[in-house]
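Today's session is about reading a structure prediction critically. Students often jump straight to the picture, but the first step is always the sequence itself: look for stretches that repeat, for charged clusters, for runs of hydrophobic residues. Only then move on to the predicted structure, which in these notes is written as discrete structure tokens rather than atom positions. Here is the chain we will use throughout the hour.
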Amino acid sequence: MRLARSLAGLALLLAASASLGAGPRIQLNPDCPPGFELDAGHCELRSLYQMYPSLQDAGVGGLKTGLPRYRDGFSPQQIDLGRYLFFDPLLSVDGTQSCASCHQPDKGFADGLGRSVGHNGERLTRSAPSLWNVAFLQSFFWDARAFTLEEQMQGPLYHPKEMANNPVKLLADLNASSEYRRLFAEAFPAGELAADDITLAQIYAALAAFESSLVSLNSRYDQYAHGYADALTDNEKAGLNIFRSFVARCAECHTPPLFTNQQVAVLGTPEPEGMPFDPGAGVINDPTQRGGFKVPSLRNIALTAPYMHSGRFATLKEAAEFYTLGRGHAVPEGEDLKIHWHIWEPKLTDEELDRLVDFMKTLTDESFKPREPELLPSGLAPVHRNQARGGELASGDHNNE
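Below is the predicted structure for this chain, in token form.
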């Protein structure tokens, strides 16, 4: 079965390459994406938040707080090449998946699934985090085990239950494409990772360039934070006040302006029924972080249901309610977890939970959502809108999310 799929993928690639040779040549965009300014050939981030003081060592801070350090400085051509790679199923072992399969633009750069679907339609054990604002993140994966985008992307690219590729095949397939060789030479001219053949470093750099361009900082909340008082309704302002209060304490972990403090927190979140307990960061870092996961950003959170690392909660209200039902109330029997000290019993009312949801919806901003390619350099058709049905993984296995 696997051999048949690989042969089918190869046939698709050969047919696509033949058809691409007769079609229009792809041109890389010489302009920076929205929100960036071209400076000496490199795209530099531009945001009002850059005018504000740093949040470091300032606690929760006010609304006008500065951004953490971030990645920019890629060329427009590198960013655009990364966009094509991101949507191209050539990066998977058999041409059936792309990066966009689990990180779909119309679903907040997540996939709308509580547990993502991998190679051969297998249901994995964790959800795909949103890629919005990854340029600002200092660690990656739910268990925070990677520290650069280049390191992170190798997880799903090469994991046998995800895109199932390997470095040798990835390089062979890309170097077999004359169109990709031309585009890589344009994006990485002499002196910038130059080589006769496409290299892994160039692939990772291009993907990191595109992902670093996915910036979402222009929501209605942001307009309010920058001084436009009418950007939020009365209910939404009430939700913001609850969010920042010392009763709900949401902002202590979901700290503006990114709405994450980027730390690992042990919450005692329950798994979906029938799933084994996921030890999370406890396996990677420190036994005291057993059951701990990275605090996700709430940016575009209304687009990325269901919620938590394995999609346990279907709605934002259910996710918010979890925090008011009692410290450690869902910890499985036999687990002695070191629940984060911020987790307590705020006893929020149903109306207060509704106001929190009203506020979280104001964090939606897709104004800089990139255009999805209609034509890919490989000639293969985009596959990210194909929704697979998943099976189950063996107990204890997890995907690279």
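Discussion point for the tutorial: The longest helix spans residues 2-21.
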